[in-house]
Write a structure and sequence with these properties.
five-stranded mixed beta sheet, globular, 103 residues, alpha+beta, 2 helices, 26% helix
Length: 103
Amino acid sequence: MARVVTLTWYQDGALGTPYNSVPEDARTDLYVLGFQYHPHQAAFLLPATYGEDGRDLRLRALVHQLARKGIGVNLRHTPTPAIATTCPAAPVPTNPPVTAHRR
């Protein structure tokens, strides 16, 4: 499909897409299905408050409606922060330890 809407699925369960990346004839579909326009973010956002079932129903309906218009939908997840799985190396002393010699 030549035209695509890319939705980002955030860790809190919300879905969003930049306003300018949405084809003009798809904007009403997003709004009708519960996406809200946030001018300070210049984005459409589907709040997480709809819950998992509500989000899934709206997403399926959006895919079907936009497909009829020749518009595809991509879904991507926000990257999760990497968790360190290794311990940092112990610092190497700059001066060797002094040992006492007995006679």
